[in-house]
Amino acid sequence: MATERRLYVGPSLRRLRRDLGLTQADMAADLDVSASYVALLERNHRPLSAEVLLRLAQTYKIDMATLAGGGGADETARLQAVLKDPMFADIDLQSLETTDVATNFPGITEALLRLYTTYREEQLALADRGAESLATGSRSSDAPDPVAESRRFLAARRNCFPSLDDAAERLAEAVAGHDNLAGYLKARHGLRTRRLPSSVMVGSIRRLDQHRKEILLDDGLDTASQTFQLALQLAYLELRGEVDAVLAEGSFDTESGERLTRRALASYAAAAIIMPYAAFARAVEARRYDVEALARQFGASFEQTAHRLTTLQKPGHERVPFFFIRVDPAGNVSKRLDGAGFPFARHGGGCPLWSVHQVFKTPREIVTQWLELPDGQKFFSIARTVTAGGGAFGTPRVERAIALGCAAEHAGRLIYTRDQPGLGADTATPIGSPAACVTAPNAPPVRPRRSAARSCPTTSAGRAFPSAFRTAESGSPDCAAPKSFGKFLAPGGFKAARFRAVKRPRLTVGRRGGGPWDTFFESPVRA
User: Fold this and answer.
1) Which secondary-structure segment (H or E) carries 148?
2) Helices (H) then strands (E): counts for the chain
3) Is the model more confident about 85 or about 470?
4) What is the rounded CA–CA span in Å between residue 437 and residue 458?
5) pTM for the full model?
6) I need a labelling partner for 142 at 20 to 30 A (CA). Which of 13, 216, 433, 443 fits?
């Protein structure tokens, strides 16, 4: 015979009573029970009976699921994810105990989650300062770094924002009732979509014309990029409150760092509209993380889909944790995201033995590789080239390579490890940092790459703009940087490690990790 499940709803019942402005005696009178019974219910000393639950729903006109539903399932999942940190490995933490804490003490649970997030941000900040000191051979400057601020904010939250995913999922359902994003924007906001030549757009790939009620797009964008830009505009219009709420969780020393993070979160929301979390999470398991197949299913580009895969860490609904990196032919890193514990070098590029630096020889072809780090950690990665720009004859194109990888223990869930006889973690290629790259056995000598020097266009005045090019497959080259970029280049803005001359008539600026504002999918354009 099935055992009856007892329902303890103390904290939820207490919040409901306080929200209604009632005392325990008032609620007891409404429910025709004693005040002492209400007190016992609120302290979880008594389970809530079905009869009393029905009285609550009828008396206060509430959904019974509010009290009898999840029981703090989201908070429990978040707390369990935090307690998986290696620092708690020696503590015997039972799943039932975690559930009890999250259910009975929601305030303490939220306090612990905030405390852990702050700890992660400070830990990453300390690592940044230590890496900079080692790279420069001196103590790091106390000047705040907006790029590092933004990256720490994202990394401390594992590049996953459930509240944005939930809001974007609801918005995607509303959009599904129309033909497409353009139809929804027309019906909901009265905005018409127009595509104009690059010469008319003057360096921008998207503009919002409030006067004419139009969204203007560069007609050189491919279909996936146009869809993303419309989703991004929709996120600015309807999810600004949700983005502000997430942003309020962080503490920024600079206005630039906050602006960069805001753009990153808006782009995250746009991707979540195109690839809603629940549907995308189901699809990745069904297709065994086949990036090309997923891209076609959701109408996204290869890079956008690979990037979205790094965000699937919603508590209770986690998928394979991935890391992501994007480089140019010179080895300069323009984007990196870590959800799999991969120790990216905080300065310079990557080891030239990694296939991401070699796929330029085989454009558009996916190359798989097992990797082994000097400390023995093993990972599996796929790499492929992607193209930015183009769209018309004579329009400049930018070739980059991206790599998507996961820890060896998760590799078996990927379609890319299927049918590889003789290839596995035992055949991993040893790789290391650019400063001390490990050479594979029997491999020809490889000259380590020099520290990454970031190339960028210049204005007529000779002022260099870091990475004005758009994200691969997400936009066209943009050599005229928007006016909003100016504040990032003011004194005290981004740090330039060094300047050096090259044969081509332009400047190169050495900076860590590449473009700060294409952290998520796109360079910012005016909202």
Assistant:
1) helix 146-156
2) 18, 12
3) 85
4) 33
5) 0.65
6) 433
